[in-house]
Structures are given as structure tokens and as C-alpha cells.
């Protein structure tokens, strides 16, 4: 049973990585309009780890002009410490159909994380297959 779990964990990591890549590419296809934005703050979100330690992630809030309206929107990816400070100018691409959806130019977003998950999932799957075959 434990042998199957290792294999399934690897396959789940591969599936999650593929999802992140597909989702990231879909967002890139929708966000086509360029604009210059200004960071007006950082939204923080906290999470508690298994060890009880609280960690924070900071998401930049960007203000930019989309067509004839001023938009304030929060980035979908964040960091700790915050990558951007209030007043920083950033080049973005926004979705003309949903002006609150945007990408910061030069950010790797979920693409790099998806590739890493696929690679780790592949390695875990190989270990799972090897353990499964040797265990018989």
C-alpha cells in the first residue's frame, strides 16, 4: 500500500504542475493590453504552519489606467519580503475583458512553480515505480 502512495503522490504533483502551466498560459493569452502601473500598497495574508509559526505573504496592489478608467487590483502572486514598495512603477499586461486581471511583466508567476512541481513529481513517480517493482 505504501508503495502505491509514493507513486500516487508523484502523479498528483505532475498533475498539479500541468494545471499551473495551463492556467498560467491561459492568463497570459487573456492579458494583452500594456499599461504602466504604480504600487499603492501591499496586501498581506497570513498562514499558520504545522509548527504553529505564522508566516506572511505580501501581494502588491497596483493602480493603472485601463482604457478610460483607473483600476486598482491585487496581484495574484506574492512574496515575503514584499518585492515591490509603495510608489514603485511596474509594467503590466491586463485583460481588456476583465481589467482587474493582470500580469506584471517579467514575473514568472505560476509557470516556474509548475515546472518545478512536474520535475519533482517525475522524480517521486520514478522512485515509486522502482519501489513498487522491487517490492514484488
Notes on the structure:
The protein has one domain. The longest helix is centred in the N-terminal third of the chain and has 29 residues, at about 1-30. The chain has helices at about 1-30, 110-135, and strands spanning about 35-50, 55-65, 70-75, 90-95, 100-105. A hairpin with a 5-residue loop joins β1 and β2. It is elongated, with a radius of gyration of 19 Å. With about 140 residues, it is of the alpha+beta class. The protein has a 5-stranded antiparallel β-sheet, covered by helices on one side.
Distance between the ends: 12 Å
- Largest sheet properties: 5 strands, antiparallel
Number of helices: 2
Molecular shape = elongated
**Share in β-strands:** 35-45%
Name the average pLDDT: 85
Total domain units: 1
Characteristic key phrases:
alpha+beta; 40% helix; five-stranded antiparallel β-sheet; 136 residues; 2 helices; elongated; single chain
Secondary-structure blueprint:
Layout (H helix, E strand, L loop, with lengths): L1 H29 L2 E16 L5 E13 L2 E6 L14 E7 L2 E7 L5 H26 L1
Antiparallel strand pairs: 1-2, 1-4, 2-3, 4-5
In short:
This protein is 40% helix and 36% strand.
